[in-house]
Write a structure and sequence with these properties.
Number of strands: 0
Shape: elongated
Distance between the termini: 73 Å
Order of helices and strands: HHHHHH
Number of helices: 6
Number of domains: 3
Structural class: mainly alpha
Strand content: under 5%
Length: 174
């Protein structure tokens, strides 16, 4: 616990500096990354040699059994198809999870913010009661730079948006 006169702990959100990294860090991820990179590069070179060298050279190396050469074309083709199917499936899942335009969850969420009294904030016109200073007379924009001049940001209710965009609600003649 820190007393009122001391500074905050380094891990506190109120701390003036970021916490220092840990003193000891394992180098295992570096080794695993190096092994993964070298093994992937080696397997790619072996794949290219298998796909491009004639049979005589491969048999000269002492390798008498290897897959058919058609797999040199089929494996990359299958990988491309799987990649494209993955994109298609993720796009389809995103469309499936999107609400329809008529659903209220399309425009009302859990993170929307509305002020307590919207009409008083929107319709209220504030008139400055004090006289502008000499500096404000020289720079006319300075009078509008006070903190209370810009209202707090909030979400406009959909009913108000519809009234402004489409006018007042009228009943259809029957």
């Amino acid at each position: 616990m820190s007393s009122a006169g001391t500074s905050a702990e380094p891990t506190s959100p109120l701390a003036p500096v970021a916490p220092f990294p840990a003193e000891y860090r394992s180098r295992a991820p570096e080794f695993y990354g190096f092994v993964a990179w070298t093994s992937t590069s080696f397997l790619y070179v072996v794949y290219l040699l298998w796909a491009l060298l004639p049979d005589e050279y491969i048999q000269w190396l002492g390798i008498y059994w290897y897959p058919s050469r058609e797999w040199a074309i089929l494996v990359p083709a299958y990988l491309v198809v799987i990649c494209l199917l993955t994109y298609f499936v993720y796009f389809a899942l995103a469309l499936y999870g999107t609400p329809s335009f008529a659903d209220t969850s399309a425009f009302i969420g859990s993170f929307n913010f509305r002020p307590l009294n919207i009409l008083s904030d929107v319709m209220q016109i504030r008139v400055p009661t004090c006289r502008p200073s000499a500096r404000a007379k020289r720079t006319p924009y300075l009078a509008y730079a006070r903190p209370d001049k810009v209202p707090e940001i909030y979400d406009i209710p959909i009913g108000l948006v519809n009234r402004v965009a489409y006018g007042p609600h009228r009943k259809r003649p029957e």
